[in-house]
Amino acid sequence: MPRKAVTESIADADAAQGGVAAVDRALSLMSVFTSSDHALSLRELAERTRLYKSTVLRLLASLEHAQWIQRLEDGRYALGPEVARLHGIYSASFSLERVVIPVLRELVATTGESAAYHVRQGDARLCLYRVDSPHPVRDHIRAGDLLPLDRGSGGRILTAFDDILGNAPGPDQELYRKIRSDGYFAAIGDRLSEVAGISAPVFSAAGTIAAAVTLTVPVHRYNPAHVTAVRRAASQLSSRVG
């Protein structure tokens, strides 16, 4: 009988409900590669996945056969050409709108407030996508509008997590340090006196800031409990966008 692992593997700790354990474990081998990894040894793969080396070797045999993994001359393992082939298909069919809008709609349904997706554009920020609150009283920013980087919760997030802007000397440096520490920014009247905002960062797969998810609220309806929903929405989008 196979030995029972003393420490639960990352695949078993987050197994797909109704899924196949062997598939979960094979995919966990793929997931432990990071952007800084050219190749990984058998020991590194076993340590990162918390699987026995014998199990890793069996999984690698199948992944190599399907060209998801390739074994290099030095004995280490790298991602294989099948990853590049599917990435090309994914890139050609990828629609940012199809990824972002459902998340914004869910955020609006949860909070009852307007949700937006902001990206940096030069020295400003662009409201790329927006889903309006069902309330008649709301702010009236539209997709395509340009807003300042140095005011408003979305602009503060894009600035704070930018490696250059967020660390540049200036009067707001302490604020940006706190934003990076907290992982979000909530403020009343930072851009307009009658509007409150809650924003959280969306990160690319490389770990850089890609966008800000922002909830805008009339001051009289501001609810700090909505921070959780905003951060959850940003987390859902992180690593799925470029």
From TrEMBL:
<keyword id="KW-0805">Transcription regulation</keyword>
<dbReference type="InterPro" id="IPR014757">
    <property type="entry name" value="Tscrpt_reg_IclR_C"/>
</dbReference>
<protein>
    <submittedName>
        <fullName>IclR family transcriptional regulator</fullName>
    </submittedName>
</protein>
<dbReference type="GO" id="GO:0045892">
    <property type="term" value="P:negative regulation of DNA-templated transcription"/>
</dbReference>
<dbReference type="InterPro" id="IPR005471">
    <property type="entry name" value="Tscrpt_reg_IclR_N"/>
</dbReference>
<keyword id="KW-0804">Transcription</keyword>
<dbReference type="Pfam" id="PF01614">
    <property type="entry name" value="IclR_C"/>
</dbReference>
<dbReference type="Pfam" id="PF09339">
    <property type="entry name" value="HTH_IclR"/>
</dbReference>
<keyword id="KW-0238">DNA-binding</keyword>
<dbReference type="GO" id="GO:0003677">
    <property type="term" value="F:DNA binding"/>
</dbReference>
<dbReference type="InterPro" id="IPR036388">
    <property type="entry name" value="WH-like_DNA-bd_sf"/>
</dbReference>
<dbReference type="InterPro" id="IPR029016">
    <property type="entry name" value="GAF-like_dom_sf"/>
</dbReference>
<dbReference type="InterPro" id="IPR050707">
    <property type="entry name" value="HTH_MetabolicPath_Reg"/>
</dbReference>
<dbReference type="GO" id="GO:0003700">
    <property type="term" value="F:DNA-binding transcription factor activity"/>
</dbReference>
<feature type="domain" description="HTH iclR-type">
    <location>
        <begin position="20"/>
        <end position="81"/>
    </location>
</feature>
<dbReference type="InterPro" id="IPR036390">
    <property type="entry name" value="WH_DNA-bd_sf"/>
</dbReference>
<feature type="domain" description="IclR-ED">
    <location>
        <begin position="82"/>
        <end position="242"/>
    </location>
</feature>
